[in-house]
């Protein structure tokens, strides 16, 4: 009798709707151009910065010095 009561209780609890409060937001900007880049270019891989004599590699967001 205890097993039957336990089974009925578990089945009843299984049908009760439970409100989930978890929300996930993923925002990925792969290859997005930097805001400080020149206007008019839709996409480039490199920017040359003559002031510091270096390149900026957009996909990995890193500066390359020579």
Question: What are the SSEs and their pairings?
Answer:
Elements: H1 2-15, E1 46-49, E2 54-57, E3 62-65
Antiparallel strand pairs: 1-2, 2-3
What report would you give on this structure?
With 66 residues, this protein is an alpha+beta fold. It has a domain at 39-65. The protein contains 1 helix and 3 strands; from the N terminus they run H-E-E-E. It has one helix at residues 2-15; strands at 46-49, 54-57, 62-65. A hairpin with a 4-residue loop joins strand 2 and strand 3 (62-65). The chain is rod-shaped and about 85 Å long.
Compose a concise summary of this entry.
This protein has one helix and three strands. The protein is of the alpha+beta class and 66 residues long.
Overall strand count: 3
The span between the termini is 81 Å
**Structural class category:** alpha+beta
Multimeric state of these chains?
single chain
Strand order of the largest sheet: 1-2-3
Number of alpha- plus pi-helical segments: 1
Model regions low in confidence, pLDDT < 50 over at least 5 residues? none
Q: Give the overall form.
A: rod-shaped
Average pLDDT confidence is 81
Helix share bin = 10-25%
Percentage of residues in DSSP E strands: 15-25%
The largest β sheet comes out as: 3 strands, antiparallel
> What's the SSE pattern?
HEEE
Rg estimate, integer Å: 28 Å
List keywords for this structure.
single chain, 66 residues, alpha+beta, 1 helix
């Amino acid at each position: 009798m205890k097993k039957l009561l336990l089974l009925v209780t578990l089945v009843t609890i299984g049908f009760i709707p439970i409100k989930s409060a978890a929300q996930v937001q993923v925002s990925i900007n792969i290859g997005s151009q930097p805001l400080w880049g020149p206007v008019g270019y839709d996409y480039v891989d490199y920017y040359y910065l003559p002031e510091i004599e270096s390149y900026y590699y957009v996909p990995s967001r890193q500066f390359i010095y020579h």
